[in-house]
TrEMBL record, chains A, B:
Recorded superkingdom: Bacteria
Native species: Streptomyces ochraceiscleroticus
InterPro entries recorded: ATPase_NBD (IPR043129), ROK (IPR000600), WH-like_DNA-bd_sf (IPR036388), WH_DNA-bd_sf (IPR036390)
Sequence similarity: Belongs to the ROK (NagC/XylR) family.
Name of this chain's protein: ROK family protein
Xref: Gene3D superfamilies: 3.30.420.40, Winged helix-like DNA-binding domain superfamily/Winged helix DNA-binding domain
DNA sequence: CACCTAGGTTCCATAGTGGAAATAATGGCG
DNA sequence: CGCCATTATTTCCACTATGGAACCTAGGTG
């Protein structure tokens, strides 16, 4: 694969072992050579042989010892010279497609957002989506560094990272080979993925869950979304992306969801449900943030709704932890402020449903905007790029 | 194959790659050399080099082509000569320790039970447990083949496969290094494990879940137990074994459990709970099997109790599948007959709580006796033996 | 019976590995 | 300040497991 002008790519196309070294550095942040050798069960000699070409090629850089892990400052011996990824060695595009528009970001190899752009869809048909993604990609790449791969995420099912087999928001009734359509339109390799999987991947490699080999992601917003990483591998089944937890019963006294489930996750936690519940009580239409503000100030209608939602959220979090045995959950989505306003209630509910002898559940509340979701798509592209099969030896 | 006298152990102590070959054969049953090569990404040449010494050593044997997978009988080319494990190449002891006795089995490398024995505990203190395990091991090994490793399982928490850190049934108040105590007493390597993890391991490598890389095990009996395998690796955390699912709420109208949870898994599904519910209604004490028989014959008291239990079980199974994304659940334990008597109700409840677009959940009901649990302990020993670090090169 | 296909074996050049020994960089100590 | 212990990293080399090519084996087919 030739990347036209200035090649920041390694001349050596990354053999299995050197790829493993690069991945280790990417995922574990700055690490010394000796530490990498230990983690990968390689000898120090092999490590030198593998790592130094990567430094020469510009993919890795030596950084100053950042005083390492605290607690063992004054030890004898030569100091470590940690290696880190040079994040600008490669750049990626991530694009999140919604029913109305495309949000896209340009990121580094570390999924740091360099630039961001948004453009409304001219239509929901595949051709319009392809055109819009082409446009935003064009805007982001103009005059910038070459792009190694493009990631696209959307709500729905995606097969083999290329074919969209279900996309309710776009009203696509049949399979669309979006990956190949976009690859042709952009002249770049493209990876398509479910939006929640993409977000989960981003948290796994680059987010607060970096370094954790087991965790769950829970999103609340228009609905309830769910992603799971076990043993350092994301759980990817065809059933992911159908909102498996959306109708999990949480409160036998709760309101109904549009499908008729009483007190299910959607009925208790989604923004529309909460707005509806408060609006009905107040006899006027209120926004989600207004609901939370009113609850925080003790409004007699909003407060109990939010408290019930917090309790339901705690119950859901506890169930996730109990069933999957994760010790960390990343909570995000447009409705995440609920967890902050009702944090005490949430924590109490989690404790109530957890065995007291279990390790405490680590809960990470992560604010999200559209760039955050688009960054998830970029993370998918980064993973695909880093893990892709070696080119069949030319 | 004659075992008795001649040492069945390999002279070659299994290098990394040949260990992988042996493991592949152990786990995937009879497999042709070419198939192994494909699975392990090895060349055919390497495969010959690796596999044939294993055949020579007696660990693997060539078997007749069992007409392979149906559907492709008449194909051209040389027929495959599949390899299989010689299960008698090694033997193992599995012992399950309860609060009252020790059940032990002698098994092959495939966890097939060769002999079985039971002995009551003379006391619950560590010394008595060690003595009883020593006795049953002695009985099982007398005059038989040499034992490669001993596995011991019990209800409770076990650290590093050696130290029992909690064992409510044995009323041990402090950590007991049971593994090393037994290793000294037996003169054999010993692996200790939580009983549910052990059972899960057995299902994973040798049971109905063989070949599945993601599944859950659910046991109903005195309580509700739970084990999980994801990405071909068992989920092993300190929290396993504390009955995480025992108090999962399943029926807001259900009875109370001893801890005061209304309609939790224990209250709805445990044998004592079901017996209690039916006994109260009938004004007489009934056994578990009697409850099920009465329900099957339409008894007006037992039938609704069992139906409610079946519904709760279905809800629990659906939750397991929804949260962990497994597509297969092995259901076992002394109370498992519930699932057979109330199968229709269970299936209906599963469907009700699953998104209709998901893949159907595969449910495997497995009858269990004490040998079954002891076999789990043996499976732990087999795993430890097969996966153990190579002896530090003599 | 010649030919086709696919499984399995033999053999060899070589890439990649661990290990020993060397070198580098640091703190402690007399 | 010089020496030593300690740890990180590099250099170098013997060795071994690997892939690949060529070959043999064991059926089918026309």
């Amino acid at each position: 694969m030739d990347t036209t002008s200035a090649p920041p790519t390694q001349p050596t196309p990354l053999t299995g072992a050197s790829r493993a070294v690069a991945l280790e550095v990417l995922l574990r942040g700055p690490v010394s050579r000796s530490e990498i050798a230990r983690r990968l069960s390689l000898s120090a000699g092999s490590l030198t042989r593998l790592a130094n070409p990567l430094v020469d090629s510009g993919l890795l850089v030596e950084v100053d010892a950042e005083h390492g892990p605290p607690g063992q400052e004054a030890r004898a011996g030569r100091r470590t010279r940690p290696l880190d990824i040079n994040p600008t060695a490669h750049h990626f595009i991530g694009a999140k497609v919604t029913g109305d528009d495309v949000h896209a970001v340009l990121t580094t190899l570390r999924a740091e957002v360099v630039a961001s752009v948004r453009k409304p869809l001219s239509g929901r048909d595949p051709a319009s989506v392809v055109a819009t993604v082409r446009d935003v990609t064009g805007e982001l790449t103009a005059g910038g560094p070459p792009i190694s791969r493009v990631g696209v995420s959307l709500g729905g099912r995606v097969a083999h990272h290329t074919t969209v087999t279900a996309a309710p928001f776009l009203e696509w009734s049949e399979d669309v080979p979006l990956g190949s359509l976009l690859a042709d339109a952009l002249g770049l390799p493209v990876t398509v993925d479910n939006d929640l999987l993409a977000l989960t991947r981003a948290e796994h490699w680059f987010g607060t869950a970096r370094g954790h080999d087991r965790f769950a992601v829970l999103t609340i917003g228009a609905g309830v979304g769910y992603g799971l990483v076990m043993h350092d591998t994301i759980v990817d089944t065809p059933d992911v992306g159908v909102g498996l937890l959306g109708h999990c019963p949480l409160d036998p006294m709760g309101p109904l969801c549009p499908s008729g489930h009483r007190g299910c996750a959607t009925a208790m936690l989604s923004r529309p449900s909460i707005c509806a519940a408060v609006s009905v009580g107040l006899r006027r239409s209120v926004t989600y943030d207004e609901c939370l503000d009113l609850a925080a100030s003790g409004d007699p209608v909003a407060a109990p709704v939010i408290t019930a939602a917090g309790r339901a959220l705690g119950r859901l979090l506890a169930a996730v932890a109990n069933f999957t045995l994760v010790q960390k959950i990343v909570l995000t989505g447009e409705g995440v402020r609920l967890a902050e306003v009702a944090r005490t209630t949430v924590d109490e509910a989690v404790r109530a449903d957890r065995d007291p002898s279990t390790a405490p559940l680590e809960l990470d509340v992560q604010h999200s905007d559209f760039a955050y979701w688009a960054r998830g798509a970029a993370a998918t592209a980064i993973q695909a790029y880093v893990l892709e099969e070696e080119p069949a030896a030319g």
